[in-house]
Give the backbone structure.
Amino acid sequence: MTGDTPDGDLLLRARGLTKTFGDFTAVDGVDFAVRRGEAFGFLGPNGAGKSSTMRMIGAVSPPSGGELRIFGLDPSTDGPRIRARLGVVPQQDQLDQELTVEENLWVYGRYFGLSRSQVRERAVELLEFAQLTERAKDKVEPLSGGMKRRLTIARSLISAPELLLLDEPTTGLDPQARHLLWDRLFRLKRQGVTLILTTHYMDEAEQLCDRLVVMDHGRIVAEGSPRQLIEQHSTREVLELRFDTDDHAEYAGKVAGVGERVEVLPDRLLVYAHDGDAAAAEVHSRGIEPLSSLVRRSTLEDVFLHLTGRTLVD
Amino acid sequence: MSSTTAPLAVRVSRLLPVPAGAGMARMLVERNVRSYKHGWIALVTGFLEPVLYLFSLGVGIGALVQTVTTDSGEVPYAAFVAPALLATSAMNGAVYDSTFNVFWKLRYAKLYDAVLATPLGPRDVAVGEIAWSLIRGALYSALFLLVATLAGTVTSWWALLALPAAVFIGFAFAAVGMFVTTYMKSWADFEWVNLAIQPMFLFSATFFPLETYPPTVQWLVQLTPLYHGVALERALMLGQVDAGIWWHVGYLVALGVVGLIGTGRRLEKLLLT
Amino acid sequence: MTTLFEARGAHGERPSLTTGERIGSVLEYQLAVNRRTWRGRIFSRFLSPVFFLLAMGIGLGGLVDDRAGGVDGVPYLHFVVPAIVAVQAMWVAIGESTFPVLGNIMWDRMYDTMLGTPLRLRDLLAGHVLAVVGHIIMATLIFVGVAAAFGGFPTWGAVWCIPVAVLTGLAFTLPVFAFTARQEQDGGFNILFRMVVTPLMLFSGTFFPVAQLPVVLQPIAWVTPLWHGVEAGRALSLGRVDPPWLLLHLGVLVTFVVVGWVLAERSFTRRLIK
């Protein structure tokens, strides 16, 4: 097939990919590859360069340096050919408020050169999928945030894309709406759609991604499956301690050596240990009395904290 | 630019007379003046518009028409049209401020909700908005009168009263405009404002005398508020003052009072429920 | 045909769209929006020019004819109506090229959405400009019809006012698209309306011949598209065509369109491709 990569399953490959805006380097020489059928994530805080990377993958933002191949094609010369095969869910829902829910889908499908009957048929299926069938004739404006997000996803699917790009898919949604959305994305994945998403929520990355890269300051600082990353960069469990103090750093010395490592946050201490309960007992036996203590499993948040010394959401 | 304009503008706003009973409405005027520093270009262009009309019509149409017959004889076309432009500009400014601006603040900026959380009341809100509009209108009118005088279209000392008259016309339209705005639901409703303003601008004996119309239409024109504003300004600027001007004054007073009372009531209902 | 459309929704390389399909899909979007919003334009689009016709053509015209026996040997109505046709084309063009374009750039970000599809920057620009042309044609047709009913045109040459109005509108549309794409907020439009649109309407030979202006001001009218649109339309409508002049007027308008397109494409690229 023309344009596809020789090593069949690779949908996308970036080498030394760079994006600069004037003096500012948003993406600083990143390498990654995405295989057909996987869910690949960019995890990092706001400003890490995730969205800039996504826009380059979406063939709308020309790279400033490095090499990028999508379906084996070069986005700077083959943008329209690439975009014909992509579905894009931008960070903010860019829906037309004047049009109805179904009109938003129809109009969008026509940009891909689909026939009128084709977009109408597909819109029916996709509204079912997005659980918006009852709202088909309504205007977009009164829809809830979760509904608008689902409509944007439905819209991105109208051309049956091979690769779906989701930029911060659940930012700003309430927990219920997020879970509903995740469920829809799982279904897509099962149908064989390749997903690339950015997020600054570690739970989202853990839920959705087969493989992810952790980004910070425009660079990739780690790569692997969520489980691999946690195993490599954190302990199995974490003991969270809160003290009656304005400065938790002063307690850091007192708990030193309890686990493998201690991180100081403004409102608590994190003690990294294989066995959290044992670490809590150890703290207690040293005569230290925290206001509260909590044992939990390590998350990607801990991975990020360890790699960068900062939290994902601030 | 902006940093030096604002304090001056605020000081000016303190010097200008605020209608009796306004109470804390002055605070709201001050806020408007402060926010207006960003729109100083709009302020300048707002003044230029009637001047451009005066120049265009006075020179261009004036050359074709020469003079117009009024009750007390022939007057040059520029002198005929200048008072109408003064009245129209007072109306336009007041209506713009009291409709588009107020609607935006009411529906989108939620400014009034924030204002009402302070000791200011709905009455202060209404009076404050209208007062702000009048201050700006007075500034425009004064500049326009100056230009009109320099252009030689003013021949009577009665014209000194044309400035307060313009402020007064602005007051009547601002009050009614704001009253109407409290009933507006969407931007689409503003088509109705345009539908009222533009025909008045074109047909209130502004560009040609009332006698041009057939008698029945003349009667219709005389019902519109702008006609009375134009007639009032024309009487003053041409020095053709007689007892008839009290009719115009009375009409505009009634309009303003109805608007003011209505606005206060509506705001109370909208904001405090 | 079915196979083409099916292939566009299948995996692998997809058949590309023709230029007509690309621009057409953008036009379809603008038409869909227009189906929802046309009611809000009834006044400004149809009633307002008719009011101008009545006030200037009939009202002021009565005064001018009475005092000066018309303008340049024709009744004032015949003098002013072709000018109002051109002025209206300008109004529609500028109205449709300011808020709606900035909206598509900033508020609903519809251009960004389109750029995420196989469409290219030129497609969305051309599609939107064509939609504006549609607005100008509709408005002009209706106004010319109404003005004809009021006896605003002495000859059938007035029919040619319609394409001239469209060209005049385009001469504003494209430069204003370029201007709009450089605005960060809608405050600049107020200045455009008051400092460009109103002065042009007042000083481009619309309500009186440019020769009435002081000599120093006359060259300003010569470089504005509106004056050329007014003069071309008036000559055609009055049946007083002077071919070299007509060609000059049309040439200036075409120049505005071509240069405007280049500028618009440039500022759209700067604004949207980052």
